[in-house]
Design a protein that fits this description.
By secondary structure, the protein is of the alpha+beta class. The protein contains nine helices and twelve strands. It has helices at 14-18, 58-71, 84-98, 102-106, 158-183, 190-194, 267-272, 327-337, 343-347, and strands spanning 50-52, 74-78, 117-119, 134-141, 202-210, 222-225, 231-235, 243-247, 250-253, 261-265, 282-284, 292-300. Helix 2 (58-71) packs across helix 5 and helix 3 (84-98) packs across helix 5 (158-183). It starts with 13 loop residues before the first helix and ends in a 5-residue tail after the last helix.
Length: 352
């Protein structure tokens, strides 16, 4: 990859730095002291709510999802209907991609115009601090944006496995959206309709690869941010921790539950719910002994649909907190600036 791809400077895959055998990380990856990971929170007794989707009525599921979305902005779901065998197959086929020779991966080098493909940075500002991670980004919905030609051809099973996995996650997202809607006291389809309806939603996948890091206490795999889209369904390594969620002034390291998905509220649902549901800052730690792979499936509203708080959730006592904006307009910010906490969604708040 080089600066001719539209980046402000040459992009160096983090994996190539990790595999060089260096004992120190380049200065570009060293975070300012306040932003460095708090490794000691690994022993925190706190964890996000775990919800068993097979053991609940529709109303019980709505209440549990709603409570977690209000209180944490995060939840883990088990017995969710997606086969564990498919989850493991998806994870391994993508791990296989990141283990391919560098020249094979470079064929899919991305640009900041769309971010589709293989990359190593977010944001186009020159000279900024970088995160210790590589990724692959692709579109699933709408169909006009989906292109298998932009998906890796190797490993051989990757495209078919990713298609199957994506179909299952779309179904799961629709179930969670219905539960969130009921939990707001709305019709079951109201939140989905506010996304533009099932036929017009967007969905994309970002597979994150965090190589071993010789100085994990100095950097992050992904800087603190809230997700700009609607909802994220995250599949993480069962055995390698890394995700941290902000809880007040603390960072809670999430203990992954085997065969679970971690689901979090994105900025667009915070806006639509008039901040009843919260998108919460999170970040990713890296470590010296293990690589880590995660798969973030983003379920987003129709890209050109102006979004503002749902009218039934706007009252005299709780006026609309946000000005209308399309998701297309909204996501320009993170594509230009990279992850910056919750600064973007806060900037949408109306002045009262």
């Amino acid at each position: 990859m080089d600066s001719n791809c539209g980046w402000p400077e040459p992009v160096i895959p983090v994996q190539s730095i990790s595999e060089s055998g260096t004992e120190t990380i380049p200065n570009r990856y060293i975070k300012p002291l306040p932003d460095r990971p708090c490794i000691e929170t690994n022993s925190s007794p706190l964890n996000i709510p775990v919800i068993d989707l097979s053991a609940m009525s529709r109303e019980e599921m709505a209440r549990a999802v709603s409570d977690a979305s209000r209180g944490w902005g995060f939840l883990q779901v088990v017995n969710h209907g997606v086969r564990p065998e498919l989850m493991r197959r998806a994870r391994e086929v993508w791990r296989g991609f990141f283990h391919l020779p560098m020249e094979e991966k470079q064929r899919y080098a991305n640009s900041p115009a769309t971010y589709e493909g293989y990359g190593s940075r977010l944001g186009v500002e020159k000279g900024v601090r970088l995160d210790w991670g590589d990724y692959y980004f692709l579109h699933v919905l709408p169909p006009c944006l989906k292109s298998h030609e932009k998906w890796p051809a190797l490993p051989n099973a990757l495209r078919d496995t990713t298609d199957e996995y994506s179909r299952e996650l779309i179904n799961l997202c629709e179930r969670i959206m219905e539960a969130m809607s009921i939990g707001l006291g709305l019709d079951p389809t109201r939140l989905q309709d506010s996304f533009g309806g099932r036929a017009d939603v967007g969905a994309c996948l970002r597979v994150n690869y965090y190589p071993k890091c010789p100085q994990p206490e100095l950097t992050l795999g992904l800087s603190s941010h809230s997700d700009p889209g609607g909802m994220t369904v995250l599949l993480v390594d069962d055995s390698v921790k890394g995700l941290q969620v902000r809880r007040g002034s603390d960072w809670v390291t999430i203990d992954p539950v085997r065969d679970a998905f971690i689901i979090n509220v994105g900025d667009q649902i915070q806006v639509l719910s008039n901040a009843i549901y919260k998108s919460v800052e999170h970040r990713v730690m890296v470590n010296a002994t293990d690589e880590r792979l995660s798969m973030a499936f983003f379920y987003n509203p129709k890209a050109d649909l102006p979004l503002s708080p749902i009218r039934e959730l706007v009252t005299f006592d709780r006026p609309a907190l946000y000005t209308p904006m399309t998701f297309n307009e909204y996501r320009v910010y993170i594509r230009q600036k990279g992850p910056r906490g919750k600064s973007q969604v806060e900037s949408l708040k109306t002045s009262r």
